[in-house]
């Protein structure tokens, strides 16, 4: 099972989310999510748990829920949160 397999759904009521790695601009993955699985806005600091790691959303296009629902697409540029043992 892939990292995003548990999120896959096929419906016109979903948003296609593309996750991009901020470090090298590579695509981490893509999945279909129900709008209720996403926040109202990405204009505030947002961290998501993907696989075994936490990722901070560096930017989102579009950033508002009403816009990405209307468009049916959302692109998230993510940076892996590195934990340091104090």
Can you walk me through this structure?
- The chain is mainly beta.
- Helix content is 8%, strand content 41%.
- It has a five-stranded mixed sheet.
The coarse silhouette is globular
Number of helices: 1
Unreliable stretches covering 5 or more consecutive residues: none
Strand arrangement in the largest pleated sheet: 2-1-5-4-3
Instruction: State Rg.
Output: 13 Å
How far apart the termini lie comes to 34 Å
Question: Could you estimate the helical fraction of the residues in percent?
Answer: under 10%
N-to-C SSE string, H for helix and E for strand: EEEEHE
For the largest beta-sheet, the strand count, sense and barrel status come to: 5 strands, mixed
**Which structural class fits the helix and strand makeup?**
mainly beta
Task: Detail the topology: elements first, then pairings.
Elements: E1 15-21, E2 27-33, E3 47-50, E4 53-61, H1 65-71, E5 73-80
Parallel strand pairs: 1-5
Antiparallel strand pairs: 1-2, 3-4, 4-5
